[in-house]
Amino acid sequence: MAISNIANLVKEMASEYGASNAVIIPQNCEKPSPVILRNITFAELQTSIDDASRGMLEIGIRPGMRVVVMVRPGIEFFQTVFSLFQIGATVVAIDPGLGMNGIGACVNEAQPDAFIGIPLANLARKMLGWGKATIKHCISVGFFPFATSWSKIIRIGQASRQKFDGDIHDPAAILFTSGSTGISKGVVYQHDQFHAQVQALKSLYAIEPGEIDLPTFPLFGLFSPAMGMTTVIPEMDFTRPASANPEKIAGAIRHFQITNLFASPALLRRLSLLPGVIKFPSIKRVLSAGAPVPATEIANLAKRLNPAIQVFTPYGATEALPLASIGSDEILVETTFKTAMGFGVCVGKPVPGVTIRIMKIDDEPIQSWDDQLLVSGGTIGEIVASGPMVTKHYMNRPDQESRAKMKGLDGQIYHRMGDLGYLDLQGRLWFCGRKSQRIIQGNKIHHTVPCEGIFDSVQGVFRSALVGVGPVGLQEPVVCIQKKDPVEDEARLREMILGIAKQFDQTKDVKKVLFHPSFPMDIRHNSKIRREDLSLWANEVLA
User: Fold this and answer.
1) Whose CA is closest to 457, among 426, 392, 503?
2) CA dist., res. 117 & res. 138, Å (int)
3) pTM above 0.70?
4) CA separation for the pair 374, 420 (Å, rounded)
5) Cα separation of 357 and 370, whole Å?
């Protein structure tokens, strides 16, 4: 089938399910009777996308132009993104959790032609000079005196007869990585890669039109309308899922009969605070990603679902998603026990159409894939993926691209994930940590996630992080511990941890335990430990 503009998927849903709600924005979901602030049907959404497309063409936004979008999840978010797709412009999406300096750096690197944002984002753009050298068109979703209002764009489009036929050969989007484990990079997405993502998600999880989605991470909800799902916008700060009100999330699930839920590990932990009697019988599946998901959180949520309904943990990255997947049945029955014994975290079998290979650990660029790079079965190496949803380029990052992309003889692009892992005899992928965070102690390599699985199983440990202390190449492995209970006896807990460490080959070299009050976490899901920061702290403490 020929690849079309990704925006056409919404148009197809509008033609089939026009009278159904595409987006619902509720308030007070924790109360018996929530208020629906706004809603829009699929037909109305498509009409507004068409109007916005014509309006942007009228003011001078053209195919191939780069447009930064900083709009909160909601009706205008979908209007903005899909109208830009439709006219062939390139959406530039930047995680707001990067902070003002990080956002500004990404905007300037993208060299955008236009900027669409809420008033606060427009104020920051103007005050801090984001994209000053290249931005020609400024649009505000909400009142901002120095930008064209989004409502005016719609009105202009309603009076226009502009025609649009977006070129699918122009990039559909540039999505900046979170930068939680390295520099933030602009990942270039083509329309065919987005199509592959949508088809993989629909097929893998049996998602059907007419379902109700509660996406608690905007990028996971980006294509809900394209799959025919009604999107209910949760009441939460999307940059701080660890602070979400679990009663509001549970209320939305109950009131709107949510069938599809994405929840980061941090949000799963918030839901675990709810009384055990609270169940979610309408849910057909839960997806959780962004960091290894603790089995305790998976088990807690699984108990609230109907029998045979699972919590799935798809594996991937901004550059390629989904690559592998595993469900809670397999995790809770088998793999979680192996995680506690130092095997790593199982992320499941590759999704159909994706090839996963494990190559020798190498920090240098490699231009072309060669089968001689493969490690023997069961050996930990760098995870490499190829498939239709694997992106081919970073924007203006030749050095990072040379370290992440390889060309195969079959013409495929092989993406080096920067993650370490191995394939077991059943063909399942096991995640063992980031390559950049491995600890090299002479001839021995210590991998973070297998060791942390052992320490996390110790009673009284909330979470652990293995870090290196000392010069690179001669690092001593040290485990940092965040306690479940602040008053937990540290001397007793240290003795237990060191006693457990002696029993496993993965951890027997760990001789020091440091207690940290609250681990620094990533800026996207509040679930990924910033081990680089912990390593600096540990080196200072033990200096």
Assistant:
1) 503
2) 8
3) yes
4) 13
5) 11
